[in-house]
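User: Here's a protein and a ligand (nicotinamide-adenine-dinucleotide). What would the complex look like?
Assistant: Let me lay out the input and then the predicted complex.
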Amino acid sequence: MSVKRVAILGSTGSIGVNTLDVIRAHPDRFEVVALTAAKQIDRLAQQCIEFKPSIAVVADADGAAQLTLLLKEKEIATQVLYGPQALVSAVTESGCDTVMAAIVGAAGLVPALAAAQAGKRVLLANKEALVMSGNLFMQAMKVGGGELLPIDSEHNAIFQCLPDRFAKNPSDHLGVEELWLTASGGPFRDKPLADLAGITPEQACAHPNWVMGRKISVDSATMMNKGLEVIEAFWLFGLPLEKIKVLIHPQSVVHSMVRYRDGSVLAQMGQPDMRTPIAYGLAWPERIDAGVAPLNLTQLTGLSFTEPNFTQFPCLSLAFAAAKAGGTAPAVLNAANEIAVAAFLDEGLPYLSIPNVVEHCLNALPPVAADSLETILEADAIARQAANQFIHAIQK
Ligand code: NAD
Ligand code: MG
């Protein structure tokens, strides 16, 4: 068994920490060669001291100086780099064969694309990258010749429920009729929109089943997360949008399903613990211990599945609309949402204004073909500007 050399983009986040937890239990299988973080220097220093990567990357020069000092004290020889281009170096110059793409948001796009182009095994958690650049990213994977393993639990579940041949030729549908993405419905599943006016960041981030970063937690509350995941599934699995459905499943036991032509529905079940999909992606096609407690079906009181209410979750409707519009619309949706969620978390933007910001940007910025990275990054930048202006105007 050859040892896999892993680079983790976003190692201090929720996915990053869970990835290191799985790797820690399998030192015979995995070696960490690069770790990156934006600001949590102390946590990154601890990770470098434990895993001794050849490269560590932080956001800026101050952070790099701080990290260098902390590592020097412990005589750790990790090379410390900083800035967006250094994230690409972590992929291309660390000697990795596997990249965990777990930076949150558009900031993760360029290094994830570099991993695709370089033919790495890409473990994709950073759904925003695929939402922005789906066509380009899937092309880059093809040309690079690496393996793409979805880490988002729903897409990992679907990947597990599809035949092996599907990954090699997604245009051959092999009797696949529909993909059913399950959604917990988040903390406000049963609350009418009108009751959500005064929701605080703490309430929105208190997800009933999963512990995650703050941005994705808010996205789960608005169900923008499921909308982004529909677009993610569209690119990953190559089925028409009409064949991708969302089901509310509050128990988060069935992580998603595939319905076949012959009447079979295959589901993947498990604890709501991201170490399962992470371990699956790291070891594929083998299976390793993920440190996850066994699922005990006899302790479940029941499993339920209902259609989502699109009026209650306007962000889900907006994501479907952007997916249908195509081109740069998903990049605009994503950028506007990132700005709106950040403003909700840090600047007192009312919770119910999040969809208004996104809708405003989608209406103001008609889509163009998303045929180059430059076009996509420009759409992202313009949408951020439009979102900020709109937020400024409504908060006056
Ligand atoms: P998080 O906020 O906990 O961690 C984000 C990581 O990205 C951190 O290491 C942070 O330092 C880094 N980062 C943030 N901004 C950056 C920037 N501008 N430049 C460089 N690095 C930056 O987020 P998370 O919950 O771990 O989610 C990571 C990604 O995985 C997201 O795209 C999310 O949608 C996806 N995902 C997460 C979960 C989950 O359970 N947490 C599940 C499915 C998918
Ligand atoms: Mg998910």
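Summary: The longest helix spans residues 373-395.
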